[in-house]
Amino acid sequence: MANVSAMHRWEFDRLPHRKWDEDIGEFDSLIILPSKVHYHDILFYKARCILAKLLRYEEPNVYTVKGLHDSGYRCMDFVAVRGEEPVCQLSGCSDVIHIDGIGGFGYDWLHKYNTVPKLVPPHDWSIDCLPVSGLLRLFCRGKMLVGTALSSFEIYHAGGNKDE
User: Fold this and answer.
1) What confidence tens digit (pLDDT) does each residue in 43-56 have?
2) Phi, psi for residue 41 in degrees, rounded to 5
3) Would you say residue 161 has pLDDT above 50?
4) How is 52-90 classified by DSSP, letter by letter?
5) 130, 96: one domain
6) For the chain, how far is it from start to end, CA to CA, in angstroms?
7) Strands 76-82, 85-89: pairing kind
8) Number of domains in the chain
9) Which domain holds residue 12?
10) I need a surface site. Which of 4, 34, 92, 163 has the fewest CB within 10 A?
11) Are residues 14 and 94 in the same domain?
12) Closest of 130, 133, 135 to residue 8, by C-alpha
């Protein structure tokens, strides 16, 4: 069994991907994998943009650069972790992560509160940096859940402690 603290980046890259809408259940932490972007691809893209302006052509789309989102920011993938063991990669197409969902109201907030809540209990979100790979790991008090793999990636606190 693999221990995420001793893994290298290439080992995370080789993990299987879940289907975009697959429910993998609860897990303990999430490792953030920034996409790999080749700098010569960015330079080539920028040169094409300059030429397009000079020659009055339509500018190329930024998503032609592998690893960049159409927003121009790098895409991220995420690895779900149970204990210290990696489960799978989760997204690969997101340029942003929303902690406790878009708006921060938590998982299924409309059914839970029947309105926009005025107060959402804190879940002690934290980030550390893995010693071998240098990747960031996100965790909280209790367990975590994820949404579907879309342009914006949503991570939720799932409970799993006596205060919930």
Assistant:
1) 888 888 899 889 98
2) -65, -40
3) no
4) HHHHTPPPPPGGGSTTB-TTSSBPEEEEEEETTEEEEE-
5) yes
6) 31
7) antiparallel
8) 2
9) 4-35+76-159
10) 163
11) yes
12) 133
| pLDDT per residue as tens digits for the range 14-61 | 999 988 788 899 999 999 999 888 888 888 888 888 998 899 888 877
What are the pLDDT digits (tens) for 72-119? 788 888 999 999 999 999 877 788 888 877 655 565 555 665 666 566
Residue 44 CB neighbours (<10 A): 14
Of 123-132, 140-149, 155-164, the range with the lowest mean pLDDT is 155-164
Concatenate the DSSP letters of all residues of the chain into one string.
---GGG--HHHHHTSPBPPTT-----EEEEEEEEPP--HHHHHHHHHHHHHHHHHTPPPPPGGGSTTB-TTSSBPEEEEEEETTEEEEE--SSBSEEEETSTTS--TTHHHHHSS--S-------EEEE-TTT--EEEEEEEEEEE---SSEEEEEEEE-STT-
Contact, 90 vs 18, CB < 8 A?
A: yes
* Dist CA 111 CA 101 (whole Å): 14
Neighbours of 37 (CB within 10 A): 14
